[in-house]
Amino acid sequence: MQIFPCPFCGPRNETEFHFAGELGKVRPDTGKEVNARDWATYLYAQRNEKGLVREVWLHLTCSELFVMERDSLTMDVRASKSLRGDAL
Amino acid sequence: MTRYSAFTVFREGLRGQKGWDKAWRSPVPKPAYDVVIIGAGGHGLATAYYLAKNHGIKDVAVIEKGWLGGGNTGRNTTVIRSNYFYPESAALYDFSVRLYENLSRELNYNVMFSQRGMVVTAHSEPEMEMAARQVNAMRLNGVDAEFLDRDQVRKLAPLLNYGPDMRYPIHGGVFQPRAGTGRHDAVAWGFARAADAQGVDIIQNCQVLELLTEGGRCVGVRTSQGEIRASAIGATVAGHSSVIADMAQVDLPITSYALQAFVSEPLKPVLDTVVLCPPFGTYISQSDKGGLVIGGGLDRVPSYGQRGNLPMQEAVLAGLVEMMPALASVKLLRHWAGIVDVTPDSSPIIGPSGLEGLYLNCGWGTGGFKAIPAGGYLFAHLLATGHHHDLSRPFDPVRFTTGHLIDEGAASGIAH
Prior knowledge:
The structure holds two protein chains of two kinds. Chain A is mainly beta. Chain A has one helix at residues 36-44, and strands at residues 3-6, 10-13, 17-22, 52-59, 64-71, 77-82.
């Protein structure tokens, strides 16, 4: 069982966490015309990197979203921090 | 190539087994081919075979960073079925089942396709209604399907729990008689041998380091064994598709996850069909050696680590004990994981990559093994002609832009 660190609750069991998505996706500005290609990129395209990744995770028990940096090959967790402030 | 037959087995028995040829060569890569296929798993090898057989394109190399059939082709639970919902999927997967039905004869290699059927159980009256809908959809699509009540399920799989203590009591199920299991390694080896016999070079321990591009077109690959150029390059690398796509500076709608499987110590025959119980997320069959082959859902953490881990192991095995309590004390022999390429609609991607000259066959997610002959057949058509076969056209990646998703994740209740 892997332990993930929640920036608010500390180290907790991995089953308490839910993968929300890759960090850095920006929803298209719907105030302007958005073409189908840009929508598809936003909705579906993934970097899906092998190695170091930065992702948004949800800690189900405290309902907080946060950023986790980890290695998708070794599964080492490097850092976790709040989405507030300058995390992006 | 020595043709395999009862006679050659008998003859070699008398001659001290000295007359067998190697099943395939280990050639040094040539500087250029008509087609280079990245990844010598089932789909890559089948693609090479059908390029040679259906299209007469024999100047083909299949390059593989490890050993052939060492990825998901050697890591799956060997189930072959076509119990899908949408017409596009039914046509694709049933084409694959039909190719499997004749594959041992065609390849002169016993892939041990055993059509022992597959039961998907239903555990409430609403689930029975959905099961009836599934059966009707499959029949409309020309796929065999039977709607079973509880007694009929019991006859097929008496090992399931029918007691009053069952958490989700069995009401009935969907049965596909033509589904079954195959010998996964034999599928890779059979396609490798048959492709090699037609002149295809299979080059193992040859990792792609970089794509060669000229004028915005992919013209080859730089590998750990040097540069190899080709008119068309096909990638059949499953969970590592995003790694190749990254070399082409393309983002795919794919997330890679580990999918685990388990095999028990060998037992006397206890189960002669494949059983999936959706509420427990666990399915099981028994191999010819007697081992129970057990699978479940995806891991919850995106990963490229080809190894199992405990949370999903606990979920799958807890489900198994609830399904078939008699197996609670059976010991596991091995468990492992492969990296699967999951798309948003749980349907595969076959088509151009976005970089000219590079084509993709990926996104099979948790169900690539059953689709190997069809995936190879259709991908060969695309590589040879530059155009889709009618069966693969709906699976072009353009569907993510046009919105024509084939959402089998929702329709067939694929749990992952």
